[in-house]
Amino acid sequence: MSSPDTEGNAARVHARFWKAVGIPSRGAKLHKTLRDGMPYTVYIKLAAEAGLEQKELARYVIIPPATLQRRAKTRRFKMEEGDRLYRFAEVLKSATDLFEGDKARARQWLLNPVRGLGGRRPVEMIATSAEAEAVLNLIGRLEHGVAV
């Protein structure tokens, strides 16, 4: 069982991640951000947090180069694009938590084939909510020591 201090630290780490990438972590502010369009700065911060080239992140969240150039000018992503960025952030956060804050190990896990995902790479499973949910479910099982 976790102590109140451990829970408080986990909450601070959780809030720190979302603040670092510029996304509200939950609730009405998150919903409004997704509906109004994710700011372009989130994309830049998210790529940096993941240790990825910006073009790599765009590929994983299915944003073509021409679209990315347009979003750089408008400074905002459309709702569907922002939703994929949010899903990527959720998966990145969960993978980082799985590896106890070790970003390099989390990144390595995300970029390599995983047996529990049928040999697919987790980063390839961000485009749809069902696939992202499968990655998050696997991470949950791994955190709880469930064999996969």
UniProtKB/TrEMBL annotation:
Coiled coil: none annotated. It comes from the Bacteria. Residues 94-145 form the Antitoxin Xre/MbcA/ParS-like toxin-binding domain. Residues 30-89 form the Antitoxin Xre-like helix-turn-helix domain. It holds the Pfam family Xre-like-HTH. InterPro entries: Antitox_Xre, Xre-like_HTH, Xre/MbcA/ParS-like_toxin-bd. This is Toxin-antitoxin system antitoxin component, TIGR02293 family. It comes from Alcanivorax xiamenensis. The lineage of its organism: Bacteria, Pseudomonadati, Pseudomonadota, Gammaproteobacteria, Oceanospirillales.
